[in-house]
Amino acid sequence: MKTRLGHRTLSAAIVEQLRRDILDGTYAAGDQLRQDALAASFQVSRIPVREALFQLEAEGLVLIAPHKGAIVSAFSLEEIDDVFDLRALLEPRMLAQSAPLLTAPDYAEIAALDAAFASAIAAQDVAHWGQLNARYHLALYRHARQPRTLAIVTSLLQTSDRFTRLQMNRAPAFTRAEKEHRQLLRLCQQGKVEQACDYLVAHIEKVRQDLHALLKRGARNPALS
User: Fold this and answer.
1) Beta 32-33 vs 62-65: how paired, if at all?
2) Which domain, by its residues, includes 177?
3) How many distinct structural domains can be found in the chain?
């Protein structure tokens, strides 16, 4: 945190660091992010900090409230449903266009990402679960000529990173995720695009159901509302 920021734009570098700190639990839901303290820590003025906080608000990671400043967002059923409704709508649409155009090198890269995801799970490398999950999904959609949808889906997967960390902290969830990733890849390789799209929707819905169950049980986790 206290290392001087280098060649990257200040606000982008601050966004990256604060996003990482929120996702790994350094800042828990409800924590206040004070501009003056952050500016001092990053050794910058308050302007790039303010810009970074606005970006994090757009990503749903913080809430900027009058007289309170920026507060790390908590999870809610409404937020989860909003994110997963959009994912279930947009991701199959991208997969349907991309899957027929995937090449052997594409499949090799996707398989490598899947293997890295499995390795991160085995090593309990929580920090990389969401990143690898997002990279796996986006690699499947890389040939979809839908730039606006891609931007939205990328943001949704980034938001889902927090959910993934919560949901994947359970053995049945990560065992199932590995199995489903392999089956989704297999369906695409076999040219069964329609089945792959249906399977993708089911995959997304299962994660949503897990999160609903966790919240309804009132699981003790600082990320929960």
Assistant:
1) unpaired
2) 77-216
3) 2
Where is pLDDT greater, at 128 or 223?
A: 128
How far, in Å, CA of 44 to CA of 39, rounded? 5
Higher per-residue confidence, 223 vs 182: 182
Beta strands in the chain (DSSP E): 32-33, 62-65, 69-72
93 and 68 inside one domain: no
What's the token pair of residue 192?
Answer: 């069964």
Please give the structure tokens belonging to residue 110: 């996707």
Measured at the CA of 28, the angle between CA 205 and CA 157, to 5 degrees, comes to: 35
Asked whether the predicted pLDDT for residue 172 surpasses 80, the reply is: no
Q: How far apart are the first and last CA of the chain?
A: 27
CA distances from 70 to 26, 58, 110 (A): 15, 12, 37
The helix/strand/coil state of 3 is coil
Task: Read off the amino acid at residue 188.
Answer: C
